[in-house]
Amino acid sequence: MIEFRGVTKTYNAGQPAVEDLDLEIGEGEIVALVGTSGCGKTTTLKMVNRMVEPDRGEVRVQGKSVMEMDPISLRRSIGYVIQEIGLFPHWRVAANIEAVPKLLGWEAGRRMERRDALLRMVGLEPSAYASKYPDELSGGQRQRVGFARALAADPSILLMDEPFGALDPITRRRLRAELGSLCRQLKKTVLFVTHDPVEALLLGDRIAVMDAGRLCQVGTPRQIRGQPASELVRELMTIEAPA
Amino acid sequence: MILSTVLRLTLQHLLLVALSTTASVLVGIPAGILLTRNERFARPALAFANILQTIPSLALFGLLIPLPFLGGLGTRTAIVALILYALLPIVRNTYTGIRSIDRALSETATALGMTDLQRLRSVELPLALPVIFAGIRIATVIGVGTATIAAAIGAGGLGELIFRGLAMVDNRLILAGALPAAALALLLDAALHRVESALTQRRHRQEVQ
Ligand SMILES: Nc1ncnc2c1ncn2[C@@H]1O[C@H](COP(=O)(O)OP(=O)(O)OP(=O)(O)O)[C@@H](O)[C@H]1O
Ligand SMILES: [Mg+2]
């Protein structure tokens, strides 16, 4: 579904942000990407929809090299939830969710139907929320809308960059459980970044651990917890006892 | 007699400002947008516009006169000078208005699959609109003031009354030029504010500013 083959990306001639990455994400699989800040997680994610282009190696989506696809239609076919959610503040919730369907030229009736279905799916009542502006929503509600927007055109692939960051622990837990099971139910192929080992262990079919641009271990939660390949992996996946 | 003269000169003044500001908007906004797409040129271009702005207006009018095509005595030269003055606030505000949009938003627009033009039209310009409009309003108000000097090179406008008043040491003549000019500046500023409000569909406009 998504394949990285010897992918390297270096920004302005410094240390490579991502180096010689090999990773495969199967259809319907959920892979969590973890690692210390600056290790190249966002860069990895962005190379899937060509927001960033690799210097070496190849990224393939559904068997096709992304460099051979039109970046605009590639992006419209992949759901993306960025680190800061990025809802357009001058657009109502409805317009935000309908963004990609509109770009794809869906007619208004179909867009509205889809939008209402999505709002219900993420637990927001359409009549109450569709016409609100993002600044009238709580952080958790914004996150739900961002998620709905990513799903709007029913992409088979979902990229999420710390989708549950910046939420209080309770909202985070609830949203994580809800949206996680939604992804599974909808059989999406998901690559998501997280700093939270619990999140990675709970949601990921597999976990990919990165350090300084390199992949240090990929495996199921059981493997990663049971046989961490290095001290760093063990440390990253350590669950702190609640204080 | 004096009233009809004041009226005629006010209209002339308005025309000078309207023509030059419109031209500056038509040139300045695309130029500002292009600078956001070519960061390398942004700094030198803005520096150049800044320098233009620092040339005393009387001197700039004078410097333009001997130039072929652009120069000469009269309205055309005045309009060229007024365009040059109006350019900086418009280019700068367009550039900074777009640049200061949260990077996450422009990035999201791209990630959703917007083309560069779609992103510009539906995300960057609407969000930068208040800043761009502030630039246009500054340019207009400055333009009304600077246009009074256009009379010095025979372009007419309310400056005629002011210069005549100065020469004749007649305060009433000076005021007959200065007061309508001040009123014109306030009026144009208010009108542009209205246009801006109409363009901004968002209800809590004050919040955004
Ligand atoms: N557009 C860019 N230009 C130059 N350098 C960049 C750019 N984006 C990222 N980098 C650098 O590449 C490296 C990897 O960045 P990246 O954003 O992929 O890290 P990350 O793992 O997502 O970090 P975080 O957990 O803090 O979000 C960092 O050293 C960063 O400074
Ligand atoms: Mg990141």
List keywords for this structure.
heterodimer; A: 243 residues; alpha/beta; Rossmann fold; 2 domains; 6-stranded mixed β-sheet; 4-stranded antiparallel β-sheet; 11 helices; B: 209 residues; mainly alpha; MetI-like fold; 80% helix; disordered C terminus; binds adenosine-5'-triphosphate; binds magnesium ion
Sketch the major β-sheet of chain B. Answer: none
Query: At the first level of CATH, what is the class of chain B?
Result: Mainly Alpha
* Oligomeric state of the chains present here: heterodimer
Query: Over all CA atoms, what is the radius of gyration of chain B?
Result: 19 Å
Average residue pLDDT of chain B = 89
Total number of distinct structural domains of chain A? 2
Question: What is the element layout, followed by pairings?
Answer:
The complex is a heterodimer of chains A (243) and B (209).
Chain A: E1 2-10, E2 16-25, E3 30-35, H1 41-48, E4 56-61, E5 64-65, H2 71-76, E6 78-81, H3 93-97, H4 99-103, H5 108-121, H6 126-129, H7 139-151, E7 157-161, H8 169-185, E8 189-193, H9 197-203, E9 206-211, E10 214-219, H10 221-226, H11 231-236
Parallel strand pairs in A: 3-8, 3-9, 6-7, 7-8
Antiparallel strand pairs in A: 1-2, 1-4, 4-5, 9-10
Helix pairs in contact in A: 5-7
Chain B: H1 2-37, H2 39-54, H3 57-64, H4 75-99, H5 103-111, H6 116-147, H7 159-167, H8 171-199, H9 205-208
The complex binds adenosine-5'-triphosphate and magnesium ion (MG).
